[in-house]
Amino acid sequence: MIAEKMTVERDALASFEGIDFPQDKVLKLKIGDVELPDIDFVPYQPGLRENVDIHLLFDNTRDDPQGSDAALIRYQPGAYVPRHLHMGYEMVLVLQGEYVENDILYRPGSLIIRAPGTTHEMRSDVGCTILAMRDIPVKQLT
User: Fold this and answer.
1) What is the pTM of this model?
2) Which CATH number describes the domain made up of 2-140?
3) What tens digit of pLDDT does each residue of 88-132 get?
4) Measured distance CA(73)–CA(92) in Å, rounded
5) Which has the closest alpha carbon to 85: 121, 49, 56, 46?
6) What is the residue extent of each domain of the chain?
């Protein structure tokens, strides 16, 4: 499945024309790669999220299974996350590298707001770091 995704032309990925959920919002902020402090990352959901590491900023799901969370998430080159359903809003800010959601390429400064009911899968061919916040945990589809 990853090999199929990598065959999409990079120029086609750079377009926002393929955004499949009209209620989603994408802003392109004018920032370059963000320099992060020296922080620890740990593997994120091994066996489900391949080559993905996380640094939790907060996690209210420990006290409430429907709680919010926020984290810095690092995708190593070739990382992949299977399709899942958002039960609530999610906000992603690309800080470094190249982040691909549903075959759309996002670079640093891309701010993506996913609405409840949307689905997506993610990957990074070259690696990236994002800031992600969810108001309700996701439902895994695969």
Assistant:
1) 0.80
2) 2.60.120.10
3) 899 999 999 999 998 899 999 999 998 888 888 899 999 999 999
4) 10
5) 121
6) 2-140
